[in-house]
């Protein structure tokens, strides 16, 4: 893994996939956090009160960096189109992440699913150089493919 590749993901990334399923079906699957463990290879478990201002706790599999429980808060929910959560490690100025999920109905039977991941804080360069974002980015690509398979 090259330093340039590691640093390119430092500010964040976007993943996107076309799912041949109605928006409502994709929304139901991606917001059924209790069942993530049944289909999601990256977020192995999740517990959430799916309301703005409430918490989500989830277990990510960062491969060689181990499995880690993270906690975040839902900032916005616009069913069935999008939701945003934000979390931090220790205190927000050290490391903060904002994650936006967008579901765009392209037809009655096709949905564009997009994840936007934004990093900020003093620890971001250190985490980038360790390669954590390369592993996390791949995890979200795997999440997208597994969601597509689960919905289709």
Number of strands: 7
Secondary-structure-based class equals alpha+beta
**Helical fraction:** 25-40%
Order of helices and strands: HEHEEEEEEHH
Structural description of this entry:
By secondary structure, the protein is of the alpha+beta class. Helix content is 27%, strand content 41%. The chain has a 7-stranded antiparallel beta sheet, with helices on one face. Helix 2 (23-30) packs across helix 4. The chain is globular and about 45 Å long. The mean pLDDT is 94.
List keywords for this structure.
single chain; alpha+beta; 7 strands
Task: Break the fold down into its secondary structure elements and pairings.
Blueprint: H1 3-8, E1 12-19, H2 23-30, E2 43-48, E3 55-61, E4 67-78, E5 82-88, E6 96-107, E7 110-120, H3 124-130, H4 132-151
Antiparallel strand pairs: 1-7, 2-3, 3-4, 4-5, 5-6, 6-7
